Amino acid sequence: MQPSKGRKVNSDLKENPPPKTMPTHWPSQPSIESTTRNEPLHGDTEMKSFNSFWVLLACYPLLMPPQSLSAQQATLEEQSSDQPDTGKQVEEKQERPVADQQKQPSAEEQRDREMRLAKYLTGAKFLGNFTIEGKSDALPKPEAYTISKCEKLPQPDMYRLTARIKYGEIDSEVPLDLKILWAGRTPVITMDAFWIPGMGTFGARVLIHAGRYAGTWQHDEVGGHLFGVIKKE
Questions:
Q1: Is the per-residue pLDDT at 228 higher than 60?
Q2: Same domain for 132 and 43?
Q3: Domain assignment of residue 7, yes or no
Q4: Distance between CA atoms of 203 and 184, rounded to whole angstroms?
Q5: Closest Cα to residue 226, out of 143, 123, 118, 102?
Q6: pLDDT in tens, 180-203
Q7: What is the rounded CA–CA span in Å between residue 56 and residue 181?
Q8: Are 45 and 111 contained in the same domain?
Q9: Sign of the CA dihedral with 50 first, then 52, 54, and 57 last
Q10: Does residue 139 sit in the same domain as residue 223?
Q11: In this structure, what CATH number is given to the domain that contains residue 170?
Q12: What distance in Å separates the CA atoms of residue 93 and residue 101, rounded to the nearest whole number?
């Protein structure tokens, strides 16, 4: 008599009993523990990249060379200067004093510098050259002005200069009542359509600084530049 199939299955189970506990994972699939240990999760990768970006951004100014920082600062200043002024900015600029604006001298200081200028010009000799506009190929021509006396007149900015003028073929001494204005601390001899006996009508702007003079001149339709040194007799 042959044993039944049910009895055979039961005997097989007795010989090869099933495991008491189920495997924690299948060999073909990696466990969560191994995945966490060997490879970071996708969310952790994004978080670490995000944190690294902000750390790099915070340290960026420290890593840049000083020249790059200066160049960036100059660029920012140029961009800000190109922006149009708003009404508030214009009002603030008007309220602030101009840094390079010369302080107006007091009445006493004005009298003092007028006296010093008159004393300086008395006995001064202007030795130099003048050019004629439109004749660039010609050499500058010599000129000489000797101021025997200079005095301040009662009118504002007016001086009387007794001068000997050597101008081309002219050599004569004439009194000149001229206006001398101030560009900051620099005196500027001013002539506007000024008639000189025996010479004609002249215009000029001649500044005096550090023992030298320079400026422009006009005689009717002819004009040019003049420049030279100031000698004291």
A1: yes
A2: no
A3: no
A4: 22
A5: 143
A6: 999 999 999 999 999 988 888 999
A7: 62
A8: no
A9: negative
A10: yes
A11: 2.40.128
A12: 14
Residues 6 or more apart whose CB falls under 8 angstroms from that of 232 comprise 123, 124, 125
**Sign, CA torsion 82/84/85/86:** negative
SS3 content of the chain, % helix, strand, coil (to 5): 35, 35, 30
For 35, the enclosing helix (H) or strand (E) is: helix 32-38
Single-letter amino acid, residue 187: P
pLDDT of residue 198: 80
Residues 60, 121: one domain? no
Largest CA distance in the chain: 166
Q: Report the predicted TM-score, pTM, of the whole model to 2 decimal places.
A: 0.56
Task: Please give the backbone phi and psi of residue 186, each rounded to the nearest 5 degrees, phi first.
Answer: -105, 120
Q: Which domain holds residue 63?
A: 32-70
Which class for 114: exposed (0-12), middle (13-18), buried (19 or more C-beta within 10 A)? middle
* 15 token code pair: 């010989």
Q: Write down which residue in 70, 92, 126 finishes a domain.
A: 70
Residues 6+ apart with CB under 8 A from 92: none
Q: Are residues 115 and 61 in the same domain?
A: no
Residues in the chain: 233
Assess whether 156 and 59 both reside in one domain: no
| Mean pLDDT computed over 23-51 | 52
More reliable by pLDDT, 162 or 102: 162
Compute the average pLDDT of residues 133-138: 89
Helix (H, G, I), strand (E, B) or coil at 103: coil
**Number of compact structural domains in the chain:** 2
What's the CA gap between 36 and 19, in Å, rounded? 28
Q: Per the structure block, which two tokens stand in for 205?
A: 């702007």
Residue with tokens 């010609």: 138
